[in-house]
Amino acid sequence: MSFMLTMNRSNFDGKPQELYIKPAPYGTNMSLIGAEIRICASDELNIHSFRQFAEVDGSPRHHAYSTRHGDCFDFLQMHLRDCQQNHTYCRTKNPYQWKPTRLLDVGHPELGKENVLVVETASWSAEERLTASGYITLSHMWGKERFFTLLTSNLEDVTTSGIDITLLRRSFQDAIHATRKLGYRYIWIDSLCIIQDSVLDWEIEAGMMDKVYSMCDCSIAASTISSIKDSLFNSSDSRAMMPIRVPLTWSNGEQDIMFFALDWHCDANQISPLSRRGWVMQEGILSPRTMHFSAFPIWECRTSKACVAYTQCSNAPNRKLRDDIAFPWTTFVSTYSQCELSFFEDKLVAISGVARKVAEQKAGTKYLAGLWDDEHLLGSLYWNARTFAARRYERYIGPSWTWASVHGQTGQSIFMQVDVALARVLFSSIVPAGDDEYGQVKDGYLAVRCRLFPMSLLNLESFTCNIKSTDLFYVCRWGPWYILPDDYGVRTLQGNTEDSALSFMPLYESHLSPDNSGYWQQICGLLLQEVPGRSTLYDGAATSRTYRRVGCARVSKTEYAAEMGEHFHDKELLSGPWDEGHCQTVILV
Which domain of life is it from (predicted)? Predict the structure, then answer.
């Protein structure tokens, strides 16, 4: 549920203004469940409006400010030292001083400041490896412009003679400057440390991204850069960061509320151009520490956040992965599904490092191309597309039952809690495309013991939809059914011809009301279409009952019983769970 904060300014004459908080005119009451309500300034309540009458609390350090300024690096170094010395959760477990295959040496004694050297760490002796300093990583947005990269043809030159830094894009030059200012000799930059025209080298290095970022001392995030000409460093007026105190009158007396421009500092990294890049999700989560170079430098580690213009946002919660906290996988993949990838084949590869780390927490649980074969699998299968732009990939990315097979934002329903299981996953299989079980896949299936109910959806042109709802759905005119296609660009769900005949596979019942009655008692399941000519070997025998997912659906048991009986003839849908004699084994691909 989103809330709007508005102000009555019709008669502004120096008197205290009226503030209102009310539900925003979109969404549904269902999304109030488990919602976090946050009061902040929005477009309709410009923070500068408050300054006409509100007392300003505190003062910024500087008015004109540049992230190239020495104080910026003093601030970052202070937090880096404090984190390394005092933050238990941020300490990197690297007893053997692991290093990436290649690093950029920005402080080689035989090279001047205008040159850097690509070093192959495999050539280091054991002593050199143990005594070598830590390294920095860079998260950046590639863009569509061509720039200098590591290639098979220049590998020998850059590892012997080095690289003239004037050949590098502006942000790389700035990152090298920042690395030196922070007192480091080595930095890892993907385009200069992975051979870009070698598929083999890319596959090897992509499989080590979890180590590259989790073992670094800190990551530099080029948050505002979208072009090769953009600089890592920015100039800003820190007065824009000043907190304000607004006097309000409540029923129990007068009280002040402090407002901060959170969208401009502590959360700026989440709305920057960089945050739209798919690979960056993984890089930011795995790195123990991140320095965001945006309008203002932002420090973030597994323990705290801080902004140089206003440091009191320290100890704010963050999204980095900690060994002692269960990682919110479904939230992560929902956010990730909105991000952009230059190559759609990277859909699973770009989060393979996070998946590998989460697997360590899950103690050997099988990874299923974006899902986990654990006690939450039934609920995880009930994901849905959240945008009308959602499309199935033309080339194979993963099985139809994983969110990774859809291009566009996906997410879990509020009905993902399994209260009564109506199906049972007997077996799961994923065939990796290479050696990395967390990367690309070339095949996969689930063997499911379940009931299938033939279903004909007619006259879909009469459906209505609510595009601003938390759950994007088609609402069937029959009332209690919510139909959510996986691909909004095809007409798979229309008609009742043999080619488009659908089956509904109930997965589970979800109860969200205390008395388990009414609208909140939902049957959640998948819409399936049989795959002709597909035979899958399971339990020693080939089976022809193979299906692919084309969407998901849910229905209110109470409303169904009252309104749907005449349209959906098989009343047994309401009588689950069913005994084994009424179930069958089907294969989902």
Answer: Eukaryota
Runs of H (alpha helix) within 167-259: 170-181, 190-193, 199-206, 209-214
Alpha-carbon gap, residue 330 to 336, rounded angstroms: 10
Q: CA-to-CA distance for 106 and 122, rounded, in angstroms?
A: 18
Rounded to two decimals, the pTM is 0.78
List residues bridging with 95 in a β-sheet. none
| pLDDT tier, 279 (very low <50, low <70, confident <90, very high otherwise) | very high
- What pLDDT was estimated at residue 110? 81
Per-residue model confidence (pLDDT) at position 242: 56
Residue 580: Cβ-neighbour burial (10 angstroms; 0-12, 13-18, 19+): exposed
Give me 548's structure tokens: 């692919």
One-letter amino acid for residue 9 of the chain: R
Q: CB burial class (10 A; 0-12, 13-18, 19+) of residue 181?
A: middle
In the sheet that holds 244-250, the strands lie side by side as: 55-56, 244-250, 253-259
What's CA 391's distance to the chain center, in Å?
Answer: 19
What is the full DSSP assignment across 458-520? Answer: --GGG-EE-TTSSS--EE-TTSSEEEEES-TTS-TTSB--STT-EEEEEEEEEE-STT--GGG
Q: What is the band of 29 on the pLDDT scale with cuts at 50, 70, 90?
A: very low
Is 584 strand, coil or helix?
strand
Mean pLDDT along residues 440-466: 72
Please tell me the distance from the alpha carbon of residue 383 to that of residue 471, in angstroms, as a whole number. Answer: 10
